[in-house]
Every structure is written in C-alpha cells, then in structure tokens.
Amino acid sequence: MATPVGWSQGGSGSVCLAFDQLRDVIESQEELIHQLRNVMILQDENFVSKEEFQAVEKKLVEEKAAHAKTKVLLAKEEEKLQFALGEVEVLSKQLEKEKLAFEKALSSVKSRALQESSKKDQLITKCNGRREARSPSHACLHGHFPNSPVPVSRAGFHPNFCPRLRIQASPSGPHLRKGLQGPGRPRK
C-alpha cells in the first residue's frame, strides 16, 4: 500500500504502527463486507419475497381445505361402498337360495312330467290294445298288407276319433245327437 500524502516514510514509528493497524482493520472489514454480500446473494437466491410466501401460504390453506373436503367425500363414498357390498352379499345369498329352490322345483316338475309321460304311454298302449281287440279285421288287414294306408272314416277324421250317438234329454223329448269323441278324453 502506498504511503498517504503528507506522511513521511521515515516518521515516527507510532504513526506507522497506527497506519498498519488501520490498514488491517480496513482489510478485515472489506473481507467481512465481501462475505456479507455473498451471504445476501445466497439469501436472495434461497429466499422468496413476502408476497410470494403469502400467496403460497394461501394456496396451501386452500389445498388443505380441499383435501379435507375430499377426505369427507371419500369417507361417505367408502360408507356407500361398504353398504353396497353388504347388499351384494345379501342378494348373492338370496339368489343362491332361489337358485337352489328353482333347481329343486325344476327337478320335481321334470320327475312329475316323466311320470305323466310314462303314465300317458301306458294309457296309449292300453287303449291301442283294447282297440286291436275290438277290431280284429283291421289288425288282420294291416298284418297282411303293411303298406296299405290307415283306414279313414267317412267324415275324414283319424281312426282314433270315433263318432258316437248320444241321447240328450230336452223339454220336447229325447233326441239323438251325433257327437265326436277323441281317445283318452270322453265328452260330457
């Protein structure tokens, strides 16, 4: 460092000593100022302004409120879901019971239909046996000529339908009436 104007270089030692001390103090203060500037630069980079902080803080409060609302809605929907799952379970059990009841009823109906079918076949066989016993000429005719057509009555009805004469009482007196009767179902 250069000697200031007006100071002599060979002057008293106390002035030089004071000057050296003053220079050391100035250098240390300059270094301290330089460090403080670096700290301020870092603070400017790492810190935000008060307005920005308040805006972010307000946004955080709004997000927390929205989160709380969403949490309440989630709890309600979760409750609805649990209720719906309970209903599904109850309905599944009920459906299973109804399915078993339906299968049991269907099995019963099938069994009864099979019995009725068997009974019908027996009745047809019995009816055919009686019919063959009553008209041996037809049986004989069909036995000798298997390709001959089934005889048809004059009215054009199938041979299982038999015309019958019925007597009906009326106030003017009894009348003969011709009626038709099918196999297995007598007319009244």
Which secondary structure elements does this structure contain, and how are they paired or packed?
Blueprint: H1 13-46, H2 50-134, H3 136-144, E1 162-168, E2 175-181
Antiparallel strand pairs: 1-2
Protein name: Spermatosis associated 24
Pfam families: SPATA24
GO molecular function, one term: DNA binding
Could you walk me through the main structural features you see in this protein, from its secondary elements to its overall organization?
It holds the Pfam family SPATA24. This is Spermatosis associated 24. By secondary structure, the protein is mainly alpha-helical. Helices cover 68% and strands 7% of the residues. The chain has a two-stranded antiparallel sheet. A hairpin with a 6-residue loop joins strand 1 and strand 2. The longest helix is centred in the middle third of the chain and has 85 residues.
Brief digest:
By secondary structure, the protein is mainly alpha-helical. It is built from 3 helices and 2 strands, in the order αααββ. This is Spermatosis associated 24.
Please describe the structure with a list of short key phrases separated by commas or semicolons:
188 residues; mainly alpha; two-stranded antiparallel sheet; 3 helices; 2 strands; 7% strand; DNA binding
